[in-house]
Amino acid sequence: MIKENERKEEFIMRMTKKLLVLLLSITILGAFFVGCQKDNSNSNKVDNTNNTTDADNKKNGSARTLEEIKDSGKIVIGVFSDKKPFGYVDDNGDFQGYDVYYGNRIGEDLGVDVEYVAVEAASRVEYLVTAKVDVILANFTVTKERAEVVDFALPYMKVALGVVSPDNALITEAEQLNGKTLIVSKGTTAETYFTENHPEVKLLKFDQYSEAYGALLDGRGDAFSTDNTEVLAWAIENPGFSVGVESLGNLDTIAPAVQKGNTELLNWLNDHIVELGKEDFFHANYEETLAPVYGDAADPDSLVVEGGVVEE
Q1: Residue 2's pLDDT is what?
Q2: Which residues make beta-bridge pairs with 162?
Q3: What is the rounded CA–CA span in Å between residue 291 and residue 40?
Q4: Which residues fall within 8 angstroms of residue 87, CB to CB, at 6 or more apart?
Q5: What phi and psi values does residue 227 have, to the nearest 5 degrees?
Q6: Sequence-ordered list of residues with C-beta below 8 angstroms from that of 18, at least 6 positions apart, any chain
Q7: Are 101 and 285 in contact (CB under 8 A)?
Q8: CA-CA distance, 11 to 253, in Å (whole number)?
Q9: Helix, strand, or coil here: 131?
Q10: Reduced to 3 states, what is the DSSP secondary structure of residue 309?
């Protein structure tokens, strides 16, 4: 009986030792893994610290300087992705259009690559204010209200509002829209103009141009209003629709925009536009990107601005 108890005690002691060894091993392994995780975390912090210039700018909303853009080897430009022929994505997934043609030249003369970012009409100001892009070229009409929050460079195009509608119920003057539904894109001069001057017109608003044109095709509105250059191009490619109102409101201009106070980049853009005017760059741009769409339906001199000088 005594021997049996001794055997039991010996067995318990052996099991206790094994358990202690096991617990000690687990503790050591745990400490090892925690140490590895701390090392990895610190490594990430070092990498992030070494590469936070652009990220920090976007986080705190400060625009990149001209030198920072050059040093990074890339300029970020906001353009439309659904507003043919000014800014759109082709079947190959590439950005094309009048604004993109100009953007490519900016990158070429700066000696950097161009990264295009798709924007909507209502997000153009926000993308500059939060430094998501360096420049906006998204068919951006210069207005007093916008100029209070962003800085516009010299203009490169003239524009007014136009109204496109079905041929079988053509709208030829704004007054015909009284009590009817007009489709507009949010954040555009068309939205502002009709809100202020024709409150009797019901506005059906969309974020994207593709959605707005889809609503017109579906008959959800009686007409659609935006820049006359745009509705003219769309009507040419969509039989059954015409631009009954070719010019509405003031003659405005379209220009590049940068974040408010980014003077160095703004000055470079202004000087660049003046230099481009010496070679009639924007007329060449028109022939390459707009003439195939407009044909004889538009006069390039009525749309194009060279050297930042508007000639009416």
Answers
A1: 44
A2: 226
A3: 57
A4: 79, 80, 81, 95, 96, 97, 98, 99, 100, 137, 138, 139
A5: -55, 140
A6: none
A7: yes
A8: 94
A9: coil
A10: strand
User: Angle CA(143)–CA(145)–CA(148) in degrees, nearest 5?
Assistant: 110
What do you get for the CA distance between the two ends of the chain, in Å?
A: 119
177 and 190 in contact (C-beta within 8 Å)?
no
Domains of the chain in sequence order: 54-156+255-302 (3.40.190.10), 159-252 (3.40.190.10)
Q: Binning pLDDT at 50, 70 and 90, where does residue 16 land?
A: low
User: Residue 141 gets which letter from DSSP?
Assistant: B
Q: Element (H or E) spanning 108, and its range?
A: helix 98-110
Rg (CA), the chain: 31
pLDDT band at 60 (very low <50, low <70, confident <90, very high): low
Closest CA to 202 of 183, 217, 215, 225: 183
Residues in the chain: 312
